[in-house]
Amino acid sequence: MAGGQPWVVVALDVDSAARAEALAAELDPALCRVKVGKELFTRAGPDLVRRLQAKGFSVFLDLKFHDIPNTVAAVCRAAADLGVWMVNVHALGGGRMLEAAREAVAVYGSERPLLTAVTVLTSHQREDLVQVGLDHTPEALVDRLAHLALNSGMDGLVCSAREVEALRVAHGRDPVLVTPGIRPADAAADDQRRVVTPREARRLGSDYLVIGRPITGASSPRQALERIAASIG
Ligand code: C5P
Fold first, then answer.
1. Tell me: the pLDDT tens digits for 157-211?
2. Range of weakest confidence among 34-48, 57-71, 111-125, 180-194
3. 210 lines ligand 1 (CB under 6 A)
4. Ligand 1 pocket, residue 206 CB under 6 Å
5. Quick one: pLDDT at residue 67?
6. Residue 127 predicted with pLDDT over 70
7. For every residue of the chain, which 3-state class applies, written as one string?
8. Is the pTM value of this prediction over 0.90?
9. Which residues form the catalytic set?
10. What angle do CA 59, 62, 66 make, to 5 degrees?
11. What pLDDT score does 1 carry?
């Protein structure tokens, strides 16, 4: 359940173990952690996670679990057995599912992964929520699900850096806030809409900054990471 530096989490959004390991070879575990998401995990599996960990990286397993409480508890135990640093669930799975996840990892004590919850996917607009019967604005639903997740014992939330200030006012300094949508001032926004620089995200109160393409797509991922790490101190 280690917190603290490094604050940068590099999203290894590639389609093979070989590509992920080639990227990792360019990165320094003293300067970053890594995120393994659904595509890479489905292609490369737990063995890749173990190899990344053996190279010194702490791994955020970004699989956004959302299922019945018993199943989510079981997969959270599997993630804890794998030794990942952080794992996440969907707050929309509800209070009983969140509590089952928390109880499942609690038995690992200080060795347990951090447990974070996704509130509303940033791809969802008001119409998408209404379509599935959730008659709320995304902002109101983020607020509601953030309360539910933190009251159910989650360590923190994955959220937009733009939501961080309001979440800090509502929930204080304790929750771990993990923010994607980060772009250095000189990088392309790609398909991200409302981007925030690494320095600004930290100033707003983000703990961990999930950064993919500005590092993984750079001609030198190593230099891109070093520049970003230096910019946040
Ligand atoms: O390349 P980029 O920096 O945009 O990568 C951001 C990473 O964060 C991707 O892995 C993406 O799936 C993830 N993410 C996101 N927005 C969210 C949640 C996760 O961009 N709301």
1. 999 999 999 999 999 999 999 999 999 998 888 887 778 999 999 999 999 999 9
2. 180-194
3. yes
4. no
5. 98
6. yes
7. CCCCCCCEEEECCCCCHHHHHHHHHHCCCCCEEEEEEHHHHHHHHHHHHHHHHHCCCCEEEEEEECCCHHHHHHHHHHHHHHCCCEEEEEHHHCHHHHHHHHHHHHCCHHHCCEEEEECCCCCCCHHHHHHCCCCCCHHHHHHHHHHHHHHCCCCEEECCHHHHHHHHHHHCCCCEEEECCECCCCCCCCCCCCCECHHHHHHHCCCEEEECHHHHCCCCHHHHHHHHHHHHC
8. yes
9. 64
10. 140
11. 66
- Determine contact, residues 159/142, Cβ cutoff 8 Å: yes
Domains of the chain: 8-232 (3.20.20.70)
Q: Is the CB of 163 under 6 A from ligand 1?
A: no
Residue 192: per-residue pLDDT: 79
The atom of ligand 1 lying closest to the CA of 211 is 3
Query: Tokens 């707003």 label which residue?
Result: 204
Ligand 1 center to 181 CA (angstroms): 6
Among residues 4, 94, 80, 17, which one has the least CA distance to residue 51? 17
Q: Average pLDDT, stretch 104-132?
A: 95
* Residue 182 CA, closest ligand 1 atom number: 3
- Whether 213 lines ligand 1, by a CB cut-off of 6 Å, is yes
Question: Mean pLDDT, to the nearest integer, of 53-78?
Answer: 98
